[in-house]
Amino acid sequence: MEEQVKKKKVLSLIQPSGTPTLGNYLGALKNWNEIAEEYDCAFGVADLHAITVRQDPAKFREQIRNMYALLIAIGLDPEKNILFVQSQVPTHAQLAWILDCYTQFGEMSRMTQFKDKSKTHADNVNVGLFAYPALMAADILLYQADLVPVGADQKQHLEIARDIADRFNGIYGQTFTSPEPLFVKEGARVMSLADPTKKMSKSDANPKGFISMLDTPDVIMKKFKSAVTDSDACVKYAEGKDGVNNLMSIYSACTGKSYDAIEAEFAGKGYGDFKVAVAEAAIEELRPVQDKFNQLINERAYLEDCMKQNAEIATKISQRTLDKAMKKIGFYQFKG
Ligand code: TRP
User: Fold this and answer.
1) Contact (CB, 8 A) for 199 and 23
2) C-beta of 148 in contact with ligand 1 (< 6 A)
3) 187 and which of 27, 144, 153, 262 could share a cystine (Cβ 3.0–4.6 Å)?
4) Is 188's pLDDT higher than 80?
């Protein structure tokens, strides 16, 4: 048999904090499928990270299951990739504690997300929120991931993961792979439909600003129809036309059409027609994911089987790294 070239390892997790938006999908999640084709992948639901802010227990449980189902629904195969729920793999919390002890207070204090979040959650600036990047480093280093697909907001956290890995390796010899960012083909940067100068966000107080991946076609249509545009009545990509630019970029991401082609298609037509076309494209883009999700979410036994099997595999792989690190530090090892 032909010897297979060893694929690079990629790992990424997503927090189960609400349904991801169309922006999350076009900008990142959709790419995970292509990544899964090319690399040896582990993807996970970062539920341990999610409790750095308070969660309602019943809702949280549901969101974890929904996010897991959604990962399968976007096309990730739980037989071919490792698809796990972070809290179901005990090594993550274990290595995170160890890495806490190899991370300096000063370097953690420089994390911009911590600074931002301690302002927005001023009533709950907990130690977990502060130590969050060490848990993320544990996620990555446990699998000896070579590459991590990250958006701009997580770049600093990936850098600190590298610093922690390099520091540990410097003290004890090669233990962890130092991870690199995986820059994927620039996905669409989708802006709010209500305020196109802001990124589309599921935590937007105005629900008209974002399309959730699980919004029904009716809701999607309504939201696009009320999207902010301008008074030019001209479908053209140009500076100052943030609303129209955003709709064009969504339309382009969903249909593969170029901006030139879109301008030609809507020449002489008003925004009404254009908005309906964009909404229809988004509905079609999300339809297969939603269909699969709706089917899976009723197959609870299947989902739980996937979770269990994958947690077992993930535990087995990550345990090797944890054992190696603990041995180097000098934790007691049984002889027999
Ligand atoms: N912190 C990431 C976020 O909020 C989620 C995450 C947790 C992650 N662990 C990770 C991403 C490991 C990449 C690799 O988006």
Assistant:
1) yes
2) yes
3) 27
4) no
What's the one-letter identity of residue 291? D
Active-site annotation, residues: 117, 199, 202
Q: Say how far apart CA 117 and CA 33 lie, in whole Å.
A: 30
Tell me which residue has tokens 């990550």: 318
> Model confidence over 123-172: pLDDT tens digits?
999 999 999 999 999 999 999 999 999 888 899 999 999 999 999 999 99
The answer to whether 43 touches 75, Cβ cutoff 8 Å, is no
d(CA 326, CA 320): 10
| DSSP-derived 3-state class of residue 21 | strand
What's the 13 CA to ligand 1 centre distance in angstroms? Answer: 5
Instruction: Give nearest CA residue, ligand 1 atom 15.
Output: 14
Pocket test for ligand 1, best of 11, 15, 64, 95 (most atoms within 8 A of CB): 15
Residue 185 has pLDDT above 70, yes or no: no
Pocket of ligand 1 contains residue 11 by CB under 6 Å = yes
| Full-model pTM | 0.94
Ligand 1 centroid distance, CA of 125 (Å): 19
Test site for ligand 1: of 9, 10, 12, most ligand atoms within 8 A of the Cβ: 12
pLDDT tens per residue, range 205-228: 999 999 999 999 999 999 999 999
Ligand 1 neighbourhood includes 139 CB (under 6 angstroms): yes
Residues 265-324 pLDDT 10s = 999 999 999 999 999 999 999 999 999 999 999 999 999 999 999 999 999 999 999 999
Q: 151 alpha carbon to ligand 1 midpoint, in Å?
A: 10
Report how far apart, in Å, the C-alpha atoms of 85 and of each of 45, 79, 148, 251, 334 are: 5, 15, 17, 33, 30
Residue 261 corresponds to which tokens in the numbers above?
A: 């082609």
Residues 6+ apart with CB under 8 A from 25: 74, 213, 285, 286, 289
Assign 189 a pLDDT band (cuts: 50, 70, 90). Answer: confident
